[in-house]
Design goal:
The protein is of the alpha+beta class. The chain is about 40% helix and about 20% strand. The protein contains 28 helices and 24 strands. The strands form five sheets. A six-stranded antiparallel sheet has the order 2-3-1-9-8-10. A hairpin with a 2-residue loop joins strand 21 (about 675-680) and strand 22 (about 685-690). The protein is globular, with a radius of gyration of 27 Å.
Length: about 750
């Protein structure tokens, strides 16, 4: 069924729309009453999350609390206004998200409760009134909520089972402040604004230490707390006592002891189809980020007939690894429009773009993947104004064996389990470092094995933590930053409970290389799409096209982004400036090095510390029109040449290209270190050369004082012509050399 176009101009949105995916903030006094200053703080906080719900701004105040709500309408646009208020304020509820089984739950409650709206989220209010927090065990959906029970003088905050929808808080003895995004808390004025450098650098989520750590999610900022997934946090507003309660556990498993493999595969497929249909439900347009892998392809397959639009990143890397082509083919098979959004060779994020993305994400884990996803959402929202929800293929791998082949080191299922054993041991020794000498392979393990229990279940718990720390965090922000709700069909707890219940003896046959999903889709998708090997999102490209763009981002404007990051107090204390510059220089010559993620993590920490110190001004324009270009592709094979011309970078200089140094460059010597050479750009030292490789750089660059070519320089220096050409190409890209003729 074709998706209808807007029947009214955008400036009438606020009058006609309601809410579902939203932003919410609040301040509650402990043992006291709110003040006018508190209410003003909440209004600032609410403005900081305007992007999450630009359709309507609501404020609610009572004696001890002040609440703010930003509304984005997806269901019940006419009458879904929040907060939901029971009996003139006895209980007040704000919800961000969707309750997919709300009709079933409403039927249970209608005889005893009267519903004031047709919003799916109102059922949480009546469920709480009927059963208390135990009602959450019945709910299927994605949500975060803040509930004021003024009868009991309590603030209750909670999140869905996987933390798809965010909620953060800070508290002291006098008050509790909470919000959908961390930045909203900082606008309250009294909340501390301190980046936790040491906690961030120690966290395996950032330093990429492969250990099976689970535990609490890192918020990256001191004294900022996150309401844990599958938990509620209750704060007594008279005493300040805090109670944290878990209502679901990732180890919950369906009883499949009597089921055959085929029955399990069919049940998995049926639950996934049901979840996709839930995610398609909205009184607005829904889209799909189509990556080209089997996960988003499955969502597309179960969306046949819906007419939803799909969106794909068209980059050098997604062309090389096949993602772009398979997205096009999958959409064509499913009968869904596919938009190939072009990121050509000149598309390098500016420093301001990266800072804005980082401030939106609020995490040092920001990476190229998130930039591309943000731009896809931005394109979708600008070109499809009625689109307010986007489905994703995220969180499939974590529960159906998506990482088994990658972690097997070529050793099949046994190799995968062996890797998990190694990771479990590393986790144990991380937690008990004093015991490390007793597990040294040089003299054998002298103590009982460090690994015990079901190591596969440990792996799943780790990946569940990873989902909350990384996946749902950035998926929420990249979508919400464009006033879009991210929907994740694979994070239906019924699906996860089913995979948890797969008997141990069936794990290899169902979880090796995602067999449970591939077998379930055999009757739904063409064989080549079903069998397509897993590739890393936006990566798996020997030309490292995407990496090159982000190395260039770090180097443009005389490495201004690096300088900004290094100016942060924590960076001055902890980061080796010369080493960081050296790694970036090496990346320019060889973007295949595995250090870009580490460099970005350190740079992001420095930038975040500076951003939080200044609090960027709140500016949100829901009608932005400047977006990436779409490259229309009708038949892939007929468009390949045009695609290649746009996404693959031709060598800007060749071995015979004549070049010279640009003006304003000057080589200097350091009297205290005679082996060190410096290069000043417009009077400012921008490059340090202090090793054997750097000495060649100096010789090569100085050879271009007069007009010459890379071949001529290589001959004069007796150096490798290929290496000299690489250096000349890098220097040209950084603006140190200019082409003077052929």
């Amino acid at each position: 069924m074709p998706v209808p176009t807007w029947p009214w101009p955008p400036d009438e949105l606020i009058e006609r729309n309601g809410a579902a995916m939203c932003g919410m903030v609040g301040l509650c006094r402990v043992g006291g009453r709110t003040t006018e200053a508190d209410r003003e703080s909440v209004r600032r906080m609410n403005a900081a999350v305007l992007h999450r719900g630009p359709d309507e701004t609501v404020h609610y105040d009572d004696e001890c609390s002040s609440l703010g709500f930003q509304r984005l309408s997806l269901l019940a646009p006419a009458d879904g206004r929040q907060p939901f208020v029971h009996r003139e304020g006895e209980v007040v509820l704000m919800v961000n998200g969707e309750v997919y089984n709300h009709r079933e739950l409403e039927e249970r409650l209608r005889g005893r409760h009267t519903f004031a709206t047709s919003s799916d989220c109102e059922v949480l209010l009546h469920g709480y009134l009927d059963e208390g927090l135990a009602f959450l065990e019945r709910v299927r959906g994605m949500y975060s909520f803040a509930l004021l029970d003024n009868r009991r003088r309590e603030l209750v905050m909670g999140r869905d089972r996987f933390g798809i929808k965010p909620l953060y808080y800070h508290r002291d003895e006098q008050r509790v402040v909470f919000g959908s995004e961390i930045k909203s808390l900082f606008h309250e004025g009294r909340t501390p604004r301190r980046l936790d450098w040491h906690g961030a650098l120690r966290d395996p989520a950032l330093n990429l230490d492969l250990t099976l750590v689970s535990g609490r999610v890192n918020t990256w900022f001191e004294d900022i707390h996150v309401v844990p997934a599958a938990h509620t946090v209750t704060i007594d507003l008279d005493t300040g006592e805090e109670t944290v309660r878990r209502y679901w556990d990732v180890d919950v498993a369906a009883d499949l002891s009597d089921a055959s493999e085929e029955e399990i595969v069919v049940a998995y497929r049926d639950l996934l189809e049901s979840s996709v249909r839930d995610c398609l439900t909205a009184d607005c347009e829904v889209g799909l980020l189509l990556s080209g892998g089997i996960d988003s392809a499955a969502v597309a397959a179960f969306s046949q007939g819906s007419g939803i639009h799909t969106f794909t990143a068209l980059t050098g890397s997604t062309v090389v690894n096949g993602d772009a082509e398979y997205s096009h083919r999958t959409a064509a098979f499913a009968g869904l429009p596919n938009h190939q959004i072009l990121f050509d060779t000149e598309r390098v994020p500016s420093g301001d773009e990266w800072r804005a993305l980082l401030w939106l994400l609020e995490t040092p884990q920001a990476s190229p993947e998130h930039f591309y996803k943000y731009q896809l959402h931005r394109f979708a929202r600008a070109t499809r104004p009625r689109l307010k929800a986007m489905m994703l293929g995220q969180a499939s791998d974590e529960f159906n064996g998506g990482y088994s082949k990658k972690l097997s080191a070529g050793g099949g299922w046994a190799g995968f389990l062996s890797t998990l054993d190694d990771m479990a041991r590393a986790t144990y020794l991380r937690e008990h470092p004093q015991l490390r000498p007793w597990y040294d392979p040089r003299h054998g393990d002298l103590l009982t094995p460090a690994v015990s229990g079901d190591v596969y279940r440990q792996f799943v718990r780790w990946k569940t933590h990873d989902i909350e720390q990384y996946n749902t965090w950035h998926e929420d922000r990249t979508a919400a930053g464009n006033s879009i709700e991210a929907r994740v069909p694979f994070l239906d707890h019924r699906i996860v409970e089913l995979t948890n219940g797969v008997p141990v003896e069936m794990r290899e046959s169902l979880f090796w290389d995602k067999a449970i999903l591939r077998r379930g889709l055999e009757s739904v998708l063409p064989p080549d799409i079903v069998a397509r090997p897993k590739v890393s999102f936006y990566y798996d490209d020997r030309g490292y096209n995407n990496q090159r763009a982000f190395v260039r981002m770090l180097c443009v404007d005389r490495r201004a982004l690096l300088e900004d990051a290094l100016s942060a107090p924590g960076a001055k204390e902890l980061v080796d400036r010369d080493a960081l510059w050296g790694v970036v220089t090496a990346l320019q010559s060889d973007p295949s090095l595995a250090s870009l993620e580490y460099v970005l993590a350190v740079v992001n920490l420095g930038l975040l510390e500076n951003l939080v110190a200044e609090l960027p001004s709140v500016s949100f324009d829901p009608h932005r029109v400047e977006v990436e270009e779409e490259l229309v592709v009708d038949v892939w094979e007929e468009s390949e040449a045009a695609i290649a011309e746009r996404v693959f970078e031709a060598a800007p200089v060749g071995p015979a290209t004549r070049m010279r140094l640009v003006g304003g460059l000057r080589f200097l010597s350091d009297s205290s270190a005679p082996d060190v050479r410096l290069l000043a750009v417009d009077g400012v030292v921008a490059y340090t050369f202090d090793d054997e490789e750097s000495a060649l750089w100096v010789d090569v660059l100085q050879s271009f004082r007069a007009e010459t070519s890379a071949d001529e320089v290589a001959g004069a220096l007796g150096a490798d012509p290929v290496r000299v050409l690489e250096m000349a190409t890098t220097a040209h890209g950084e603006g140190l050399l200019e082409v003077s003729g052929q």
